[in-house]
Amino acid sequence: MGRSEQNVIAHASRLHQAAQALIGDHTVAVEAARAALTPIQDAAVARELAAIPVARLQDVTEGRIRLGSVEKGGFTTVASVLEAPPYRLRQIPGVGEHTVNHILAAARQLASATRETVAVHIDVDHPEPATTALVTALHVLVEAGPEARRAVDRATALAERLGPLLTEAKPAGSRLRMLLTGKEKKARALAAVEAVQALVAEAEQAELPGLMAQASVDLLRGPSEEVAVWVDFELRSAEYYSLLTEISGQPPDTAAAEGYLPEGIAERVRTQRLDDTHRRVSLRGYQAFGARFVLAQRRVILGDEMGLGKTIQAIAVLAHLAAEGQSHFLVVCPASVLVNWTREIEARSALRVFVLHGPDRQEAFADWKGRGGVAVTTFNALRDFPAPGGGEVGLVVVDEAHFVKNPQTLRARAVATWAERCERSLFMTGTPMENRVGEFRSLVQMLDGGIAESLTDRDGWAGSVAFRKAVAPVYLRRNQNDVLTELPSLQHTDEWEQLSPSDEEEYREAVRAGNFMAMRRAAYMRPEKSAKLDRLREIVEEAGENGQKVVVFSYFKDVLGIVKEALAADAPLSGAPSSRPFGPLFGPLTGSVPAARRQVLVDDFAAVQGPAVLLAQIEAGGIGLNLQAASVVVLCEPQIKPTIEHQAVSRAHRMGQVRPVHVHRLLAPGGVDERMIRILAKKTQLFDAYARRSAVAEATPDAVDVSNTDLARRIVEEEQARLGLGNG
């Protein structure tokens, strides 16, 4: 025993203290958020109980108590019963102590059930001190990010292992103590020192001391300004609500989050480990289950409804497999979402991305084969690449898998070949398959021939429960209404669409002419080859498949005319079946439409049972009309003034909306859209945070000057320089 053992113990003790300090810092942050949540939760529960008639207590007690006298005594709601002192209830004629005890027990039971199910919604448009305090407390944890949570988890594991070892090794920290220690205890102390040294070396190799130090710094930062906190909440609301669910301790609807899978499969999925080392985003509970489902079942279809984050779940699977040592992955998708996939993988993971598209795709393919990473390609381009050998590709992801439902097409054959050669395959589609057994069978055939052969048309007719049971080993679908009950009713997605050659040509002509407005709408001017228009059709079609209404906004009347013509060509004739069931088409609603007529259009749109589409000029439809019948909003192009988009979206995202609103903003990379987004991003965020709290700004968006002329001139000049085009 010498100084080396003492140094090991001293070093390990400092590491143990750092781990405990981080755990404490995290606990303080969590408790601060929980303390801010409690009064909001209490108020929500009180509102619910105040709306529940006292007669509902009969249901809780299975009719064992009589409540007629209680109601006559003025106690008409469950809240009024709980708020009253017991003696007041005993003063009601015909109500004795025994009955009062039963009534109060039933009321408390109902209150407890209400607390477990009540959802806390944070109203960004009407912030109050209580919600501001909650968002501020959550902001600390969100800003610390998944890296801090990962560090806390590792610190907890380290502290649990290191603490007992340090206790066992304690005698070795002192020469005198070792001299006075018995032989057996001395041997245990020296063995513990060796174990401590190995554990410390393991932690240092994993760079845990630095991770813990950074996490503590992140958790101990002072509170940010309220405006900045609210802006961040709007940008990352899903992360805030994910934390809120965890902190509230409210049990989720497990069956719904697990897609009502049979218990045997669900249990296998729950026990599947999910490594987050290469992931840069936190997952919702149902998203983590979806990723585990893919890993546990290996060859599956993820059929979540639009807006539930299928892409994030796929990235979580890719990140896990990369952490396990897999090196090559492939994503196949429509050209319209190629850029989206690339950006999402780069933003939400540490994985390397290769785009296998365009004239250089063969070189990119060779580069990917040599270096490894995630290759992203299109259905058509996939046919140009040789299928891999067994075990070469860790996972093939097929987005919008319903594009390959016809097994006779070349794209379907190419996908089937790749899926067959890969041990794991993930097909993704937001289109419900329950009533399309024939199409579904062809997709399942690429994944599991046995299940595909067992499916008959009768499975669809038998209803979704029977259908899901039959396909549970390969199919997981969750709906928004089932799993987003606590989420905010507004979700934004920037849809980056790579312009087609025809779009590019139109855009170059607009840039050459120095016409800023023509540049903004160039992506629609050649509709037969328009990438944005193709993506718009896909969004509208998927919304229709899910029974959702859509509002399409554009600044330009001619763009709306093009959109109407394209959708009208897809729409069914009266009484005829449609391959694109998005319902009737209304509008365009423009500034030239009289106000009374505008309201008639909106009323007719809202009155439709099922899906429908309304086209509206953004400055006409964005003010004074309520469009809460819609749950999907499409913005054809980015807007110049910060308030314009907000007001348009607010027509749908407002009081009376009963399901989340999903906003899709169509953008093209590399040109005017990207420059507008970059230049206006900071100003838009800060202005919106202020403006949506200003009644004047809400009523008069034109009062805000963001230097439109200078902005247009600057963007035109930059684009002319980038493309080597002069004016004229």
UniProtKB/TrEMBL annotation:
**Gene Ontology molecular function:** helicase activity
Keyword line: ATP-binding, Helicase, Hydrolase, Nucleotide-binding
Instruction: Tell me where in this chain the Helicase ATP-binding domain is found.
Output: 291-450
Please report the stretch or stretches of sequence annotated as the Helicase C-terminal domain: 535-704
The name this protein carries in UniProt is DEAD/DEAH box helicase
